[in-house]
Every structure is written in C-alpha cells, then in structure tokens.
Amino acid sequence: xxxxxxxxxxxxxxxxxxxxxxxxxxxxxxxxxxxxxxxxxxxxxxxxxxxxxxxxxxxxxxxxxxxxxxxxxxxxxxxxxxxxxxxxxxxxxxxxxxxxxxxxxxxxxxxxxxxxxxxxxxxxxxxxxxxxxxxxxxxxxxxxxxxxxxxxxxxxxxxxxxxxxxxxxxxxxxxxxxxxxxxxxxxxxxxxxxxxxxxxxxxxxxxxxxxxxxxxxxxxxxxxxxxxxxxxxxxxxxxxxxxxxxxxxxxxxxxxxxxxxxxxxxxxxxxxxxxxxxxxxxxxxxxxxxxxxxxxxxxxxxxxxxxxxxxxxxxxxxxxxxxxxxxxxxxxxxxxxxxxxxxxxxxxxxxxxxxxxxxxxxxxxxxxxxxxxxxxxxxxxxxxxxxxxxxxxxxxxxxxxxxxxxxxxxxxxxxxxxxxxxxxxxxxxxxxxxxxxxxxxxxxxxxxxxxxxxxxxxxxxxxxxxxxxxxxxxxxxxxxxxxxx
Length: 485
Description:
The structure is a single chain. This protein is an alpha/beta fold. Helices cover 53% and strands 11% of the residues. The strands form three sheets. Strands 2-3-4-1-5 form a five-stranded parallel β-sheet, covered by helices on one side. The protein starts with a helix and ends in an 8-residue tail after the last helix. The protein has five domains: 5-159, Rossmann fold (3-Layer(aba) Sandwich); 165-225, Helicase, Ruva Protein, domain 3, CATH 1.10.8.60; 230-325, Zinc Finger, Delta Prime, domain 3, CATH 1.20.272; 333-365; 373-477, DnaA, N-terminal domain (GMP Synthetase, Chain A, domain 3, 2-Layer Sandwich), CATH 3.30.300.
C-alpha cells in the first residue's frame, strides 16, 4: 500500500519545517543552550506542523533519531479527543513519577488538548505546577481559547501561523517534481489558494489529484474542490449588477441542481467581490458591494444556506435595480401650480425665511393621492421600499393585476416569492400599506405562473382570525396556519 504524501514528506528535523521559522529558530537556540522547559504549548490552525514539531522536539531533547517507523517507549503520545476523561489523566499523573526507561526525559505529547474535560484539566494542572525533573509536556491544540488560563500560564506558548501561499507553491512544486506528477503551474496555484494555509491539506489534495488524472490541470482541481465554473460566477455577478432577479434565481437554481453547495458559491462570489473592491480606488456602488460581502460571510452558518444565499442575492439585485432604473421624481404641473402661490405668500414675509423653507419642504414631500391603479401600484412599491425593504424586494417581483376595485392579484414566476408573500406577517403589511394609500380594504391573491397560465390559489384574506389566543401566537411567530379537525 502506497504511503500518503503528507506522511512521506513529513519533516524529520527542525530545519525541514517550512514556514514556521519563528518557532523553529527559538527551539533550536533553546536546545543549543540546554534550556529545556517542563511544558510547551503549540497553538495554530490544522495541518501547519504542530504535531510534527512536537515529535521532533521530543526526540531532539533526548538526542534520539526521528523516524516514523520507530516508536520510543519514553515518548508517549495521547489523543485528548479519545482520552479526555479524568480517569485517563489521573493514570497519567500517577505514571509521570516513574523514571524514563532509557532516555533522559519522559515526554508526553497531548494532541488536541482543548478536548479535555474540566475535571481532567484540574487533574493535569497539579502535575504542570510541580512536575518531576525528568518529565516534559508538549501540548498541541487548534483552539487555544478553550484552554483554561491556569494551564496556558504554566507553559511556553508557540503560535504556528497558516502557511503562506508562496511557501505552499514552492513545496508543491518540489514534491510534484520528486514524484514525477504532471501538473500545471496554474493548478498548483489553485491548490495552494484553497488549502486554507494547511500543508497537510495541500499535499492531500495533490495526492488526490494525481489519482484523478495523469495530467493535472486547473479543471481537475476545480472538479476535486467542487468549485463552480468561473463563467457561471461571472454570469451571476452580471445578473446582480443589472438587477435581473429572474435570471439570478434561474442561474442559482442551475448551480444547485449541478450539486454545487451554497457555502462554496458564497465563498467564491465573495472572493470575486473582494478582488473587485480592492482593485478600485473609488466607486459609486462600493458600499453596496461591501454590504453584500458582509452578508455572504453569514451564509455558511445559516440554518438553510441555499435559501439564505438566494435571499441575500435577491435583496442586492433589488437594490441595484432601483438604483439603475428608478426614475427621478417629477412633480405634477397642477400640483406645482398650487404650490407656487403658497410659497410666494410665505416668502413675501421677510421676517420668516425659516417658515418659507419649511413650507416648501412640506409641500414638496406631500405625496399626491393615486388616481388610478397604475399610480396606486407605483405608490405602493415606493412606500414598501421606504419602510419594508425586504418585502419590497419580494413584491416588486410580482406582476400586478386588479381584478376589481377591492381585489389585487399578484402573479409570481417563482414559488419561493409566492410562498414568502403568503406568510401572514408579509400579507398583513402589504394589506395595511395599500389600505393607507387607497383608503380601501383589498383582498390580496398570490398566483404562480408556471407555464404561462396563472395557477390560481384560494384567496387568503388578511383579516385576523376571531380567536384571540391564535392571534397572539400568530403575532409572536409572524405567521401560522390554523388546522381544522
């Protein structure tokens, strides 16, 4: 059975360790001066060399050669994830007083030490406070913030940093040449960029790539990482910049159907947006891109990443569409004719310039009452945009139709928008808004247009149920359904 690349090329001495010179030089100097601490703490992300350096240090302290094939009885490795209980630590505490068999020091390497229970930490603390002279502890963890301060304060702490892209590229090129792996420079760069600063992850991906294809190219790495095609991402951004929500949802659905994860799509879109923001010194839409970039970061921990990403992009598209297509408000000539005498009358009073400005502002900001359905729809969108931006992004996707004086039909191309508007809280907000503008109580019907013909649903009136207890629950949870038995 072949050996994995990350094991085959694991560092065997401190000089072989790549990218952690700030750690290795300090340890080399301490070994040279024979200044050995009783406890070390190695912290940092995964796959950057913490365990390898711990093993090297354990052998260097005892002047022993280090190979993967031979284990020394005086160097004990403990996986805290599997041995986290107080019983295991009590057993360790009892055995530390036994002298080493042949080496100068008995070295305990405790990996993922943050996994120990509180009781286990308390049992370990006494040993760290007063350890025997022949014992050295090397603790390693990826989550240093989970360690008690009492433990950290009794160790020499060394922080391992993520591998730099240049170091990863150089290492991958060296190993690819040694292993006679045919891989393009662009593919190596892509591997390095998606290894999250981990040497182990980079070598594991290289190992997987050479099994996937004889000649490793960018396309090979893209398929292995599950990255969406660059063209698809550019099309998404283009639809976003144009405010084309319909195309945006269609492209996103296609990516989902092809098996691409929402978290990966969000991360790649974020990288493109970040690169665009950094490359431009100033831009009118810079703040909007920053806002979208911040929301994309929230996609991975979301309860439903696919739906959350869709909402985030639709909101951004709605905002962009308004900025690029919304016309400038033009005051009606008849309204201006009524305004002029009022303003002139106030301005004639030279002692009240403040009142003149205030009167002009009030008249200009007073909306004209809609006289027909087209004006009512436009006024409704404007009102929602000012007070309920999320609801505005949903409603503007609908095709409106006034069936009669008191019925508004909204036809959607996508079931997602129809479902969101059918939520009780959203329907009530919409009904209240149109009632304030028109002075009439409307029945709102949500329709779905699947094949060009609208599929009519049973109209849901926006009046609250008579049961006061149900109304209370409905208000708390922003929408509920009453089931009849």
